[in-house]
Specification:
CATH topology of the largest domain: Creatine Amidinohydrolase
Distance between the termini: 60 Å
Structural class: alpha+beta
Shape: globular
Largest sheet: 6 strands, mixed
Strand content: 15-25%
CATH class of the largest domain: Alpha Beta
Number of helices: 19
Number of domains: 3
Number of strands: 30
């Protein structure tokens, strides 16, 4: 019997709750929350980045997507928690599942409790819609705290500001652009709650959330004021950079207020008369704070997301430059792996990951990883988001496939790259999967498409080579990437979901098809690509992709007959470009090795 489940059920009985919903997010709907808000992991032991729990009197379930099925089955074994699969054809999501339950309740419907601080408005509305309003939602902020001994506190880390030489725009310019967007929506204020949007708008960075250079805070922008609600009094010691950053912001007219005072401010707006209508994004505003707003609201997708996604010329130049440095680290790493295998050394997945981290740490402006490195050998790579164990990780052998998915945060860039490489002899199935996934990657990289095309309309380009062999992968093909910000960002993506957001010049997106065979192997090939203007003619304006990532694709595991001539030409041109750019900057022995690895593949 899971004592945590029993403690939660005891709390439910004492408060008259029929069910509780526990999200894996924070008060800002962050994909990667700080330790304080890893509620799902604390209750269930599931460590994946996407998961939500529902607990009733006689059932406990975890909802997660295809990336984590294998991991979840292992981590939930013996916990009394059942896996509910999402992103599958027969999925039943939490609101619908709850509405199907036979709760013993009166005509007003069941009482469902949520942590209102860690549940966004859209999620609550989804539950209400499933019950056609016949449900009572209880907001119980931090209801797990009395049960969670030693629960981590809300972090507060040093803050830095970024100059126009890095961002290409000042915060004053960005705030002015936001005010124009608000005026178009007939709003005179916006409550900004997504942490990456706040960081982008104010040109500030922190490290409150591991791998994400953000500052836990709220922001209110009106037509004549900017108020930043941040944990300014919670630092163990305000370092000089943070004090300077606060002074810089204050000098530009930004009011710096306490994080916990946001509720009082919002509840006093009606009385003060400072704000008439305030815009909010239901996908990031938490349900508890929403209930404190005392003036009319306008519900809309945040205009900041689209502004942030389109990088300006200065940001693009930084991204190109840093990808050269990141590519040098990757090539040194892959050379190291091949040398270790050829010399018969025992190297673990964990040791390999630490070696790559150390190489990136040598790059000027490095601020840490953009996510936890996935270093996965053989069958471990069949878990798309495999967590490499600190102790007892698998030993790399001179055979089969090794997958490494990693990235760095730099002042001036965020990188994300996956390479799957042969460590020696591969099976025919490993080579076939390796080639088909690379074929899909190349077909998407070569795409030319009309202006206004959303990513969902070109997702099939990366899947078709696999589909022809009746194979597929469950995750998206591409996600947006931030500029020294979150490695996953919207609003654009490349996946089968019907996201209408068009791909626009300046957007940076990943290209990462894959395939995963439980108990055998996994393959993923990933570059970051820049959407750019291609050409114009009587049929319209055309867009295409420019690869930003610079690291060769290993041709030793390729079956050439599975590639078309155009695909081989693209691959040879890409590898040649990698060698031409990086070889002059590498140590001689690595440069010579790279030249050999980038030798043209013959049809």
């Amino acid at each position: 019997m899971n004592p945590k489940l029993e403690a939660i059920r005891s709390l439910m009985r004492s408060r008259g709750w029929d069910a509780v919903v526990i999200t894996g997010s924070d008060p800002h709907s962050s994909e990667y929350p700080a330790l304080r808000w890893k509620q799902v992991e604390w209750v269930s032991g599931f460590t994946g980045e996407a998961g939500e729990l529902v607990i009733t009197a006689d059932h406990a379930g975890l909802w997660t997507d295809t990336r984590y099925f294998i991991q979840a089955e292992k981590q939930l074994a013996g916990t009394g928690i059942v896996l509910h699969k999402t992103r599958v054809p027969d999925e039943v999501l939490i609101p619908e599942w709850l509405s199907r339950q036979d709760f013993d309740c009166d005509e007003e419907g069941p009482v469902i409790a949520v942590d209102g601080l860690a549940t966004n408005v859209g999620e609550v509305e989804g539950i209400e819609e499933a019950f056609s309003g016949r449900v009572r939602i209880v907001s119980a902020p931090d209801f797990l705290s009395p049960l969670w001994r030693g629960r981590p506190v809300i972090p507060a880390t040093p803050i830095i500001t970024l100059g126009r030489d890095i961002t290409g725009e000042s915060r004053i310019e960005r705030i002015a652009a936001l005010r124009e967007a608000l005026a178009e929506k007939e709003c005179d204020a916006m409550l900004v709650t997504a942490l990456d949007e706040i960081a982008w708008l104010l040109c500030v960075r922190g490290s409150d959330v591991e791998f994400n250079p953000v500052v836990i805070s709220y922001l209110v922008v009106t037509m004549d004021a900017v108020k930043w609600f941040v944990r300014k009094d919670s630092f163990d010691a305000l370092d000089e950079n943070t004090e300077d950053s606060f002074s810089e912001l204050a000098d530009e007219g930004i009011d710096i207020l306490g994080y916990d005072s946001i509720g009082m401010y919002l509840s006093s707006l009606a009385e003060s008369g400072d704000v008439g209508r305030i815009l909010y994004d239901p996908s990031s505003l938490n349900y508890d704070i929403f209930g404190m707003i005392s003036v009319p609201t306008v519900r809309a997708a945040s205009p900041i997301a689209g502004m942030k996604a389109v990088k300006n010329d200065v940001e693009i130049a930084w991204m190109r430059d840093i990808h050269v440095q990141d590519g040098l680290a990757m090539e040194k790493f892959l050379y190291f792996i091949e040398r270790e295998m050829s010399e018969g050394r025992m190297l673990s997945e964990r040791e390999a990951a630490l070696q790559l981290d150390a190489l990136r740490a040598e790059i000027p402006g490095w601020m840490g990883g953009s996510f936890e490195t996935i270093s996965a050998y053989g069958s471990n790579a069949a878990l798309p988001h495999y967590a490499t164990p600190v102790e007892g990780s698998a030993i790399l052998r001179p055979r089969g496939l090794y997958l490494v998915d990693s990235g760095g945060q730099y002042i001036g860039s965020t990188t994300d790259i996956t390479r799957t490489i042969p460590l020696g002899e591969c099976t025919p199935l490993e080579m076939e999967d390796y080639t088909l996934v690379l074929k899909g990657h190349i077909d998407l990289a070569m795409a030319v498409f009309p202006e206004g095309t959303p990513g969902c309309r070109i997702d099939a380009l990366a899947r078709n080579p696999l589909w022809q062999f009746r194979r597929n992968f469950g995750h998206g093909t591409g996600h947006g990437v931030g500029f020294f910000l979150c490695v996953h960002e919207g609003p654009q993506d490349i996946r089968q979901n019907l996201n209408p957001t068009p791909l626009r010049p300046g957007m940076i997106t990943s290209d990462e098809p894959g395939i995963y065979r439980e108990g055998l192997h996994g393959v993923r090939h990933e570059n970051l690509v820049l959407c750019r203007e291609d050409s114009s003619n009587e049929f319209g304006h055309w867009l295409s992709f420019e690869p930003l990532t610079l690291c060769h694709f290993d041709t030793d595991a390729i079956i050439p007959d599975l590639l078309t001539r155009d695909e081989i030409e693209w691959l040879n041109a890409y590898n040649a470009s990698v060698a031409e750019t990086l070889s002059p900057l590498l140590p001689q022995e690595v440069a010579q090795w790279l030249e050999l690895k980038c030798a043209p593949l013959r049809p």
